[in-house]
């Protein structure tokens, strides 16, 4: 019985460590995705400003 309890504690400890590693990986992945999306939207905004300056989009709206 003592060995079974020890094994259960070891297993629970391993599951806890596994859960922490998984959560860290999720956070790391989300950080990378957010960084890539930020770079994309930044370049999209730059492209829109450049095209607006070249094509004079919106001159006829006012």
Automatic annotation (TrEMBL):
Protein name: YhcG N-terminal domain-containing protein
Pfam annotation, one family: DUF1016_N
Species name: Phocaeicola salanitronis (strain DSM 18170 / JCM 13657 / CCUG 60908 / BL78)
Domain of life: Bacteria
InterPro entries in the cross-refs: YhcG_N
Domain YhcG N-terminal: 18-61
